[in-house]
Amino acid sequence: MPEIRSMRVEDLDQVAEVSDQAFIAVIGKLYGQRLERPFFPLAGLALRLWTDPEGCLVSSDHGEIGGALFSVARGSLGWFGPLAVATTVQGQGAGQALVAECLHRWRRRRVRMLGLETFPSSGFHAHLYAKFGFRPGWTGVQLRKRFDVEGVEEEVEPARPLQHANLPLPDLGFLYRGLDPAAEVRATLLRHAGRVFASDRGLAILHLQDAFHVTPEEAFLPFLAARDRDSFLSLLAAAEEASRAAGRKSLALRLPGTAWTAFRALVERGYQAGPAMLRMKAGDHLDYDRDAWYVDDWL
User: Fold this and answer.
1) 124 belongs to a structural domain
2) Domain of 292: which CATH number?
3) Distance in angstroms (rounded) separating the CA atoms of residues 133 and 175
4) CA 236, 167, 259 angle in degrees (round to 5)?
5) Residue 222 falls within a domain, yes or no?
6) In terms of domains, do 34 and 149 share one?
7) Domain range for 67
8) What is the pTM of this model?
9) Which residues on neighbouring strands pair with residue 118, listed in sequence order?
10) Are 5 and 58 in contact (CB under 8 A)?
11) Residues 144-200 pLDDT 10s
12) C-alpha triplet 38, 297, 261: angle, nearest 5°
């Protein structure tokens, strides 16, 4: 019987292989794309484990990793992904066991809003997560801005960088009560994965290297929460400025499809919409992000 346990650093090579193979297989089945490893950068998996070791799990059978789940709890708000099960043991309950243990740990940690992203064209995945009470009623939309495309931008004063990982962070309870991304802030700064920008009205995390979605040419903004339009644009401008200074040619991000005011502001600033994923939620106050000045990545 496989054991569900906390992930260890020494598991990461096996976890990367299992995760890559599972995602490459499902993307090939759903969309006909023929991808190759690596799909998930090992450094990105390591950053996710470093961020929230209690939320990262494996299914292990006599030392062989058959499945893995990564998650991050931002205080009262948690999301998991990627979740992967080895193609050789799919259909035997490993995925459900990993999700069940993740939710058990979240309850113990008082996570009240639970989320995930999955493939919009996969009924199998929607059915799996619906068993745990997740509702398929939202989207996560990718946007990208290329810095070599000229356009008229509203001039704003960029927010200042956070200089130390242990400095107090702004209260983000205006978005969701108990929301706290401190673990991601510490991981980003202490592992030198990027920059963090803060003001008394919001916070942004920028990844430049050794993280998911980043390349030598593109930076990624996994989190931004602001009270209003001015503070949103100030934090965004700081991330764009730092990306350019690091030699990146573009900046990508994801945001909830319900964050319509932020979406329009991004398009006005030159961002182009890309692929969308299905977001599923469970818990309390599921529409907390409606018309919020908010960017977040759930993968």
Assistant:
1) no
2) 3.40.630.90
3) 23
4) 30
5) yes
6) no
7) 3-111
8) 0.96
9) 278
10) yes
11) 999 998 776 778 899 999 988 888 999 999 999 999 999 999 999 999 999 999 999
12) 145
